[in-house]
């Protein structure tokens, strides 16, 4: 019987996939959902014993649900290619899945972010990532996906390490790719017409949330760069929304 499977979503992750797979080597089954990689991600993952499946989509929920259907484990752990399961978290995952409980069917983990390779972000996220398969209904949401499950949840000790925004080039590439989807979601939901004053409002809100509420100022220069980038990212998203609204006006 397979006790625990892990599902990893990866795209062009040849530089980081090995470290990711090493951190989940304690799992009985490793599923890699490759999202149309153009590098050696699939080759490297298969060499390390992972089961690799191809699924091309911009919808993260679809990718997570696809991986779920491929698993055979009683428990399912979800991580991304730029995440690592710390030794302490590994220990507590093993303890949780081997402790008989009819109530706890899902666990949150504490995710610590690192920007530009080594700069620790002060704010700790709390995300549902470990589920008893029979109680997991599925994932919903195109970009900011959320799980639905039946039963009670708890939280594990130990950190999930997230090495995001490795460099400015990858950050800008990601914004160009995902801002279009974000803008389309807002447009399709009937977002109010973009006027000049909405731009500074959303940009200042993004900066305040990152630099002040999440205490990005504690990360020094990296914290300032990241917080300004969050503001820039919001500008690009809403500029795309404004552009869509302008094109729609002209077509009427």
Quick structural overview:
This protein has 252 residues and is α/β, with parallel strands linked by helices.
Characterise this structure.
The longest helix has 32 residues, at 220-251. This protein is of the alpha/beta class. Helix 5 packs parallel to helix 7 and helix 6 (198-213) packs antiparallel against helix 7. The model has no long low-confidence stretch (mean pLDDT 94). The chain has an eight-stranded mixed β-sheet with strand order 3-2-1-4-7-6-10-5, sandwiched between helices. Strands 8-9 form a two-stranded antiparallel ribbon. A hairpin with a 5-residue loop joins strand 8 and strand 9. The protein is built from seven helices and ten strands. The chain has helices spanning 17-23, 41-47, 60-70, 87-97, 168-188, 198-213, 220-251, and strands at residues 4-10, 29-34, 51-54, 75-80, 83-85, 104-115, 119-132, 136-140, 146-149, 152-164. Helix content is 42%, strand content 29%. The protein folds into two domains: 4-164, Spore Coat Polysaccharide Biosynthesis Protein SpsA, Chain A, CATH 3.90.550; 168-251, no CATH class.
Number of domains: 2
Helices, by number, come to 7
Provide the β-strand percentage band.
25-35%
- The CATH topology annotation of the largest domain reads as Spore Coat Polysaccharide Biosynthesis Protein SpsA, Chain A
Shape: globular
End-to-end distance, in Å? 60 Å
Q: Taking all residues together, what is the mean pLDDT?
A: 94
Enumerate the strands of the largest sheet in spatial order, edge to edge or round the barrel: 3-2-1-4-7-6-10-5
Number of strands: 10
Low-confidence stretches: none
Secondary-structure element series: EHEHEHEEHEEEEEHHH
Fraction of residues in helices? 40-55%
CATH-level-4 superfamily name of the largest domain: Spore Coat Polysaccharide Biosynthesis Protein SpsA, Chain A
> What is the CATH architecture descriptor of the largest domain?
Alpha-Beta Complex
CATH class category label of the largest domain? Alpha Beta
Tell me about the largest β-sheet.
8 strands, mixed
User: What Rg, in angstroms, do the CA atoms define?
Assistant: 19 Å
Summing up helix and strand content along with how strands pair, one would put the structural category as alpha/beta
């Amino acid at each position: 019987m397979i006790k625990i499977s892990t599902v990893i979503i990866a795209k062009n992750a040849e530089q980081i996939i090995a470290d990711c797979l090493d951190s989940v080597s304690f799992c009985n089954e490793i599923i890699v959902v490759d999202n149309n990689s153009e590098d050696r991600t699939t080759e490297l993952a298969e060499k390390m014993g992972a089961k690799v499946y191809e699924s091309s989509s911009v919808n993260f929920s679809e990718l997570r649900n696809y991986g779920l259907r491929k698993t055979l484990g009683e428990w399912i752990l979800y991580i991304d290619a730029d995440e690592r399961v710390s030794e302490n978290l590994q220990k507590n995952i093993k303890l949780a899945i081997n402790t008989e409980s009819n109530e706890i069917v899902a666990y949150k983990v504490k995710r610590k972010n690192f920007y530009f390779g080594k700069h620790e972000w002060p704010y700790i996220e709390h995300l549902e990532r470990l589920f008893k398969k029979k109680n997991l209904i599925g994932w919903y949401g195109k970009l900011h996906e959320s799980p639905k499950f039946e039963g009670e949840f708890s939280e594990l000790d130990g950190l999930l390490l997230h090495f995001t925004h490795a460099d400015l080039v990858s950050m800008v590439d990601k914004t160009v790719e995902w801002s279009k989807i974000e803008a389309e979601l807002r447009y399709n939901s009937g977002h109010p017409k973009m006027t000049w004053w909405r731009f500074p409002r959303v940009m200042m809100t993004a900066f305040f949330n990152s630099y002040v509420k999440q205490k990005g100022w504690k990360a020094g220069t990296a914290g300032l760069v990241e917080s300004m980038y969050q503001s820039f990212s919001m500008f690009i998203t809403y500029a795309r929304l404004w552009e869509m609204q302008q094109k729609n006006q002209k077509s009427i």
